[in-house]
Amino acid sequence: MIKTFGCKTNRADSEKIISALCGEGWSLSRGDPSLCIVNSCCVTARSENKALKTALAFKKNHPSAEVVLSGCVTDSLKEAALESCIGIKLKYPPVFASVLPEGRQRYFLKIQNGCDNFCSYCIVPTLRGAPASRSRENIMRELECLENARAFPSELVLTGTNINLYKDQGGGLPDLINTIRKRYKARIRLGSLEPPFEEDFVKKLSMAANICPHFPVPLQSGSNSVLKKMRRKYSASDFMKTLDEIRRYFDKAAVTTDIIYGFPGESEDDFNETLDFVAQAQFSKIHVFPFSARPGTLAALYPPLKPSVIKERKARLLAAAAKSPEDYRRKFIGQGLEVVAETKIGEWFYGTSDNYLKVKFPAGKALPGDIVRVEVEGTLGGFMNGAAAETLWTANR
Ligand code: SF4
Question: N or C: where does the chain have the smaller number of CB atoms within 10 Å of the terminal CB?
Answer without folding.
Answer: C
